[in-house]
Model the fold of this input.
Amino acid sequence: MDRRILILSASVGSGHTIAARALEESLRNRLGIERVRTLDVLETTPELYRTFYDDAYFGLVEAVPWLVGWGYDANNPPFKLGGSISLWDRINTTSTVRSIREFRPDIVLCTHFLPARLVSLMLTRGSFSTRLAVITTDYDFQGLWLSNTFNHFYTAREETRAHLIGLGLPADRLTASGIPVRAELGRPLDDDARAAVRARYGLEDGVPTLLISAGAAGGGYALGIVRQVRELTADFRAVVVCGRNAQLEHAVRQLVDGHDRRFRVLGYTTEMPELMRVADLFVGKPGGLSASEAMAAGLPMVLIKPIPGQEERNSDFLLEEGAAIRCNYDTTVGWKIDRLLAEPGRLAAMAEHARRIGRPHAAGEITSAVLADTREQLWISHAAQRSILASSERGIAPSDLQADRRIRTLVDTGTGRSVGLITEAQRRTVAKGQRRQVDLGRGGRHPAHREH
Amino acid sequence: MEDDTRLTVSTEALSRLRRRRIDPFLLLTLRNILGPYTELTFDVRG
Done:
């Protein structure tokens, strides 16, 4: 039977939407699919709510980044806010729920936690049926992504998967897939294509190319980076991408006037995959998607001003793997890049590390797995959610919790796959209820037996 | 000796548990796990 697939994202920044598009692209020309639709759930919500989610968030990042970091940490333990969504979210997503229902998806893929939690709520109420795959878009896991039911959970890296297993989640429901990016990033350009891109942007062989993502860094800070790069002693070529920020593009152009030979200033471009594959160094913020794209292209990064919380953690991962350097001082960006360019061996080693951790085929691997997965969902009881939360907050394994609170995984005897998480106290309660039934002479069925 | 590595869940047992007013969210979870079946037996791990 041909299936209907709904990909849900939320346009808080561009990363979640780019990941959704990469998933959509990977589904193109696949057999057994009736229709694929990608929906930005914020487009279906009231303007006030949308503003709160998007503009207010980035306003806070700009004005009080420490508060954003605090908020991230405060909500980091899974199920801190329960396994469902708040009343505020429910009120504002009634149109979203209608859109999801009307599409009648056989499979839902979520690249943001809001729709993941929303679909989870719809499933829990029992009035809606689908398979739910949750795909995280940062290298670290944040608790908000975990809801009380899902079919499969895709993490960006192995350590995150190990963390979730450590909290009591069943391994067969978790895959370290990488973050979905455009697969072309992993395909090196051939000589002709490379030469054409270089010619188009005035890049020279033998002279290092910097790709500066100014749009993501935003406003005054982006100008600071360009000022620093302008003072490099090493020869270089820089492509400065300002995105849809026309004001910033104009300011950068004014700034580099007279330095045309070294700088090329762009607004929004569709050629990022090509630019990433001809550049030698990416200068910008470590958003989950930007970083994953750079790694897929084997492009080392200079990390600037990570947002406290997820970007700080992305930064940790990239530094730990040797694929990036980080500038903590606005004043030393140029100095650090100069030092790096003076050591071509080091730059080559960083590119090698980037390629090693890059996952250019993540989108295709995720959608192949989702299409092949015919299992029922995993359900997590409220008590088990509280045990996972306690485990996370206290930094101990669920097996070390008080005996009654230990997490027990229910495994389907037929398929050998996990279907539910309950606590030991809950298991005893159910076993007692079932025993009474057996005592009354109505039990005794074969263990693997299923009755409709 | 109770076998804590196996658990049978049935709609009948859930009805009895509901009458005993146990955690409604546990009942909801178990009902969702049962899906269209009236009885299922699980291995219990962890």
